[in-house]
Design brief:
The longest helix has 21 residues. Strand 4 and strand 5 form a beta hairpin. By secondary structure, the protein is α+β, with helices and mostly antiparallel strands. The protein has two domains: 260 residues, Zn peptidases (Aminopeptidase), CATH 3.40.630.10; 116 residues, 2-Layer Sandwich (Alpha-Beta Plaits). The protein is built from nine helices and 18 strands. The strands form five sheets. A six-stranded mixed sheet has the order 1-2-6-3-7-17, sandwiched between helices. Strands 9, 11, 13, 14 and 15 form a five-stranded antiparallel sheet that branches.
Length: 383
């Protein structure tokens, strides 16, 4: 592991870039602005021009470009700047610690290890300007952990990339497909009254209990309804519930947030209609049940990398000394919007997804070093 890349990763982990994910969290920890500024300074200090693209107030994508000698393809290297929150962590989240070849801290695995590796590979391309390399756009996006507005903006920008490599912890394997995600709120209404006379009201939580029972049955049925040969079946989960004002008031409102994972070929409208029908078949009607529009729509990544995979596999082999697996994953990534826009996408990065979002998040420094070499070899191998 080179000292330079270890120091860079420590710097990145030490800068909070927590995505509040709709919650009221400490503003000194939230959003990507501090990381964006660090990245901009790091690039400019090395003579690399970059530009900001404002996606939301105080939240900017950052893009840099390397134009290779010759007329090779254009490669997009994409990595997100945000991390999940730090609730329940057993280590200091922003005090990166090196122990036994691992670096600990929030974001080390997801996904600042990949970020450091991409930065080092990109800086090397700019410095060495190897003949036959691909031209490269290095893009740092915002809001991957919540609503993917950063990668959606990249997809809408039509950057003209021939191939995108999206950074996520894949244990240095190549991922060419993943499930999509649809998340929305379901609400039940009631009539509030004093809890000493509950018959005068209508309990929204009781009605939600029937809704949840219907959804549990629907989730079980989904697992045998259809199946992608690589990704398996779609899934459904109720992840959050809230209702009532006080224990002595019959509640007039209850809300749940639901998560529906999509497989290639499914549409969001069909998935939501399945849920409506499942609830209606149990309750008999949808009276006092409301459905908000999805606040997350992450498209699934369909296999679209085709002939690029052989060259990418060779590049990873040169960097790591082993043949990477090509596989699918159940989680969503920024490759969803990019792939839906027509850009061939592959996900690749150091670290194991099992370490992402954990209470003691860490990454192997050797893998980060290998990833930096792999990203560089990818640019060479595509030219």
């Amino acid at each position: 592991m080179t000292t330079a890349i270890a120091k860079l990763l420590q710097d990145l982990v030490a800068i909070p870039s927590v995505n509040p994910m709709g919650r009221a969290l400490d503003p000194d920890l939230c959003h990507e602005g501090r990381v964006t500024s660090y990245l901009e300074t790091w690039l400019r200090d090395r003579g690399i021009d970059c530009r900001r693209d404002s996606v939301a107030p105080g939240r900017d994508n950052l893009l840099a470009r390397f134009d290779a000698p010759g007329r090779g393809p254009l490669l997009l290297l994409e990595v997100h700047q945000d991390t999940v929150p730090v609730d329940g962590m057993s280590i200091p989240p922003f005090e990166p610690t090196l122990e036994h070849g691992r670096l600990y801290g929030r974001g080390s695995c997801d996904v600042k290890g990949s970020m450091a590796a991409m930065l080092m590979a990109f800086e090397r391309l700019v410095r060495e300007r190897p003949r036959g390399a691909a031209s490269v756009i290095l893009a740092f996006s915002v809001d991957e952990e919540f609503t993917h507005i950063g990668s959606t903006r990249l997809a809408e920008s039509r950057l003209g990339a021939d191939l995108a490599i999206v950074a996520e912890p894949t244990s240095l394997d190549l991922v060419d497909c993943h499930k999509g995600a649809l998340r929305w709120v379901i609400r039940t209404r009631g009539v509030a009254c004093h809890s000493s006379s509950p018959g005068r009201g209508r309990n929204a939580i009781y009605r939600m209990a029937h809704v949840i029972r219907a959804l549990e049955t629907h989730a079980t049925a989904l697992e045998s309804s259809m199946r992608d040969p690589i990704l398996g079946p779609p899934t459904f989960s109720v992840g959050r519930i809230e209702g009532g004002q006080s224990v002595n008031i019959v509640p007039d409102l209850c809300e749940i947030e639901v998560d529906r994972r999509l497989i290639p070929g499914e549409t969001p409208l069909d998935a939501m209609m399945q849920v409506r029908r499942a609830i209606e078949s149990t309750l008999g009607n949808l009276e006092l049940v409301e459905f908000e529009q999805p606040w997350v729509h992450m498209p699934p990544l369909e296999r679209n990398a085709g002939a690029w995979l052989d060259r990418l596999s060779s590049a990873v082999s040169r960097a790591t000394g082993r043949q990477p697996q090509v596989r699918g994953v159940p989680f969503g990534t920024d490759a969803g919007p990019l792939g839906a826009s027509g850009t061939p996408c592959v996900i690749f990065g150091p670290g194991n997804i099992d370490q992402a979002h954990t209470k003691d998040e860490w990454i192997s420094l050797d893998e980060v070093d290998q990833a930096a070499e792999a990203y560089y070899q990818m640019a060479l191998g595509l030219g």
